[in-house]
Task: structure prediction
Amino acid sequence: MTLTNADITELTALRRLLHQYPEVSGEEHETARRITEALKDLTPDTLLTGLGGHGVAAVYAGAEPGPTILFRCELDALPITEEGNLPHRSTIPGTGHLCGHDGHMTVLLALARLLSRKRPERGRVVLLFQPAEETGAGAAAVLSDPSFETISPDYAFSLHNMPGLPLGHVGLIPGPVNCASRGMAITLTGKSAHASEPENGTSPMAALSTLMPALTALSHGTPHDPDFALATVTHARMGAPAFGIAPGEATLYVTLRTLIDAQMHALCDQAETQVAASATAQGLTAEITYHDIFMHCENDPDATLILRNALEALRISHDARGLPMRASEDFGRFGHRAKSAMLFLGAGTTHAALHNPDYDFPDDLIPIGAQIFHRVAHDLLG
Result:
């Protein structure tokens, strides 16, 4: 069974509508409403809403007992202003679907069309539209929602589009595919003073200027190395924007990455030791908090083989290019509840990169993604 030309035309229009009305993590109310309305017309056996916030899940059940297979996409967009002159560009100031989640949602809506026309023979297919992926909070919220127990899967699959790979080509490997990461927020506190008498205060200037290169220097290796670590300074602020005040406080944001979760504790310890030493040397106090915590994403060998078999049956080219990715993905949490795997669907070798202000999901990937997932469901459930 394949999508018709009419299906593809309608799905493309829907994808572009979603693109025009992006919502950031935790605020996906209208997006969830649009998804729910689209799914109602596709007659799922069960339709759950409000999962872990604004999450939506549609269930298509077979006549016979069997495993539960979950396919997951993301609802949220990014707090980035979209650039360019697309006729379907974002209408929401400062917000854009610049990671392709609008396309991922549409792939699952395409799969829902196919399942509505022919249910699996056994088991269940769950289509999960997850909130708040970009902050790392959504998967944990969905998994801890009591309603999730009613759809708890045996297998979980997801895809992400990947600029840099040829259009329609797939990146797939077993083992780690996305790094663990977390945001480290550092507050340095001293004492402000008049700008003419800086000696009467305690400035964070020296500590801040030392910490930025020192923390960055904790980076080493590549994701192909088991001890890979990366520290990226993403934001720095010191004092008030004024000429009469010597600063008494500063804020520094650093994103920490490791290949797997087990290595993150050591990197955090190294970073915290560096912060404490720099603060003490300048007579400052330091406070550290962590945000946007992502577990690493690991492809289960059995689940990966299922995806590989589907790709080969469909004669879709695949290899290990670009993997593991340095970027993080909160789909990794599903791997602690089910055999899970994620594939990376090429968006084109010259396509704008993810999170670039001129990025737009390639609509040609909608039928390809749906075809892959439909083949997986058929192989497992008939």
Notes: The mean pLDDT is 98. The chain is about 30% helix and 25% strand.
